[in-house]
Every structure is written in C-alpha cells, then in structure tokens.
Specification:
Layout lengths: L4 E2 L2 E8 L2 H14 L5 E7 L5 E7 L5 H12 L1 H5 L2 E5 L2 E2 H8 L3 E3 L2 E4 L12 E4 L12 H14 L7 E4 L5 H10 L3 E5 L2 H13 L6 E5 L6 H6 L2 E7 L2 H6 L1 H6 L1 E13 L3 H9 L3 E9 L2 E8 L2
Parallel strand pairs: 8-9, 10-11, 10-13, 11-12, 13-14
Antiparallel strand pairs: 1-6, 2-4, 2-5, 3-4, 7-8, 14-16, 15-16
Helix pairs in contact: 1-2, 5-6
C-alpha cells in the first residue's frame, strides 16, 4: 500500500448553532483566503449544531481569524475558537487501525486487513479504508444494511436499485445476498468508478452495473425497472425531491429503504413519500441518524 504521509497542518475548530450563520461564516472565510491557503469544512451534527473546521497550510494569524468569525457569528463564537496543530501521519494506515469489522445482520463490512475475521456464516463486504465514506462505519450505511437484512428474511426482490451508491456497499450486499443483478447509480463519476471496482473486488462485478446518472434520468432506469426494491442512502433534501420520480419507477408493493437523514428530518421525508403512495413500515435510529423502510401501496 502506498504511504500517504501528510505534512503537519494548523487547524481552527468552533461550533455554531444556526445553519444560516454557519454558511455566512464559511462564505466569509472562503473569500478571505487564496486557493491552497485554507481548507474549510462545515457539517451538521445530530444535535443540530454546526461544527466548522479550518485547516491552514501555514500558521494562521489567530487574531485575524477571530475577527473574521466575529463579524459573521459574534464575539462569543469567535472567542471559543480552538487552535491546534495536526501532526504529520499516514492517514490510510491510521484509518486501517481505527476501522474494525462492522456487523449489520447477515452482513459484515470490513477492510482487506480483516478479511480473515469475517465469520463463515456472514456475508463479507470488503471496502478499503482509504475510501472513507461508505465503509459501513457510518450510522446511515449500517441502518440500510440492517433494514436490507430484515427485508430479505421474507422477500426476494428481482429488480433492485441502489440510488446514490457511493462506494457500492449496498449494491454489493444486495447482489451477494440475492445472487442477482443490481443497478447502482451515482451522480459522481468517481463514485461510479469506486463502486465498479469494489463490486469486482467482492466478486459481484458480473451482477452490479454501476452507472452515472442524475436522479432517474438515465435510460437504464426504464430498461431495468420497475423496481421492487430501491436503496437510497443520500440526504434528506434530495430524497424529498426524488419522491415523485421514485414512485413512478416502483412496481406495486415495492419496498424502499431510505437513509442519509438526521432523525429530526425523517418526518418531512416520510410525508413526501406518503403523498406518493408509500407508507412507512420500519424506522431505525442509529447514532442520531434515521433509516426508513417504506412500502408502495398496491
């Protein structure tokens, strides 16, 4: 494995309670630095608070950073900015050390270093730790796998779609459990390549077809549908926007597994799909995230 030793970087971390204010701060910081000087990330936690982290190539002027943040978020937030240094390390090696096999019903998501630790009565899904998003360690991925395991105990879908496949974990899981074909799509070309490679790594390359598509626009959806099982681990807003298109591509009594939404976002997503004739069957809550199982009427 190639070493990915990164140099030391300087970091500023702080939290903001308002999404609007967080976006204002990110915009202001983004405008204040040239490309390559700083990397800014903001993400919402289960409590609704926004955590903002800024990595700097060189040691920042802490007073200037506090003044910038204070302009957008107020002096109290600015005074609570924590500055520290992130030491150089091999991030892939560190990730491998941190990622242990994740069980989810009959499935176990693991890295190549843990291949031998998968029990004989489980279905292993091997994902490299360098592909951090979608390794199964996130509550949304695990929730989807648990709901998939629940569905497959009583149901054998024939036309399966993994919408927003990412690393391909869900498509691979369905293909392994069903020994059948799965269509996997993603808006991101890099994700499509990763899903394709992971499918072959897991000996399901002949079963998983990974395509690039926005929503349900590609012709493969009409060719392979209507689907009797759809898995979509995306985000709350895109899930709501896709409700109408999703319903049109479902067979009668089809099952849909949705995730990528914080628990407080589940209600509006359920309402959007209920309006299209899908009723909630099961709701899992893991680490502040919700995973939903819905059934289409008919």
């Amino acid at each position: 494995m190639t070493s990915t030793l990164t140099p030391s970087t300087h970091r500023a971390s702080f939290a903001i309670g308002s999404e609007q204010t967080a976006k204002h701060v990110v915009d202001l910081l983004t405008e204040s630095f040239f490309e390559g000087q700083a990397a800014i990330s903001a993400f919402e936690g289960p409590s609704g608070r926004w955590d903002i982290i800024v990595h700097f190539a060189d040691a920042p002027d802490q007073t200037s950073i506090r003044e910038l943040v204070g302009l957008a978020a107020g002096d109290e937030v600015a005074q609570h900015i924590a500055f520290d240094t992130v030491e150089a390390r091999d991030w892939v090696k560190a990730a491998l050390e941190d990622l242990v096999p994740v069980p989810a019903g009959r499935f176990v998501v693991h890295g190549s270093h843990d291949r031998a630790r998968v029990p004989a009565n489980k279905l292993g899904i091997e994902i490299e730790a360098a592909l951090a998003f979608g390794t199964g360690h996130h509550g949304t991925t695990r929730g989807c796998l648990l709901l998939l395991d629940h569905v497959l105990k009583a149901y054998q879908p024939q036309r399966v779609l993994d919408l927003g496949t990412g690393t391909g974990v869900l498509a691979i899981a369905a293909a392994k459990a069903l020994h059948g074909a799965v269509l996997a799509s993603d808006i991101d070309p890099a994700s499509v390549r990763v899903a394709h490679d992971n499918a072959h790594l897991n000996e399901t390359g002949h079963l998983v077809q990974a395509i690039r598509a926005t929503g349900f626009a590609a012709p493969q959806f009409a060719q392979r549908g209507p689907f009797d099982l759809v898995l979509a681990n995306i985000l709350a807003n895109p899930l709501r926007q896709l409700a109408m298109s999703m319903a049109r591509h479902l067979a009668p009594s089809a099952l849909v597994i949705l995730s990528g939404l914080l628990t407080h976002q589940a209600g509006p997503v359920i309402a959007a799909y209920r309006a299209r004739g899908l009723v909630p069957v099961r709701h899992l809550r893991i680490e502040g995230w919700s995973s939903l199982l819905l059934r289409k009427a008919g």
